[in-house]
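Case study 2.
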Amino acid sequence: MSALEELSRELPALARRAIALYLESGHWLEARRAGAPAAGVFVTLRNADGSLRGCIGSIAPAEPDVFAETARSAVLAATRDPRFPPLRPEELASLSIEVSVLAPDEPVEGLGDLDPKRYGVIVRDRLGRRGLLLPDIEGVDDPSTQVAIARQKAGISANEPVLLSRFRVTKALEHPRS
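Prediction:
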């Protein structure tokens, strides 16, 4: 197991603590750890039935390390995902929390270099718009579907030229508390 995989196992519980503190007090959890790497992180919240409840993150880190990045993204996923109302404190115990730590992205030539089960994808256009789709998303089984969804998220039409890049993630999951 790599050092990042070892560290990432702690991140879902940290995300839960950060959300709980914010919902209870409005305070942000101080979660820095000396020597921990910096990386982009996405935090995904799911209801007990598996449906999405929130997902927010960043391609590039905005915080000094993955612990602080996870705490920040967790609170934002719980309170600022525009697709959902802010999480209520009583909902937290029933949620599963998945943290995806992103490896640096690498440019690819075309769809043949993508595998939606192994790699996430980033699409960028010349105007600076970009869309990201994490790997291994249910119902996304081929690269063209993966790229189409990432384009849609970025507001980039199907006929506009884009640059493609792919990335791997290290995932850690914490199931709901009973």
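The mean pLDDT is 94.
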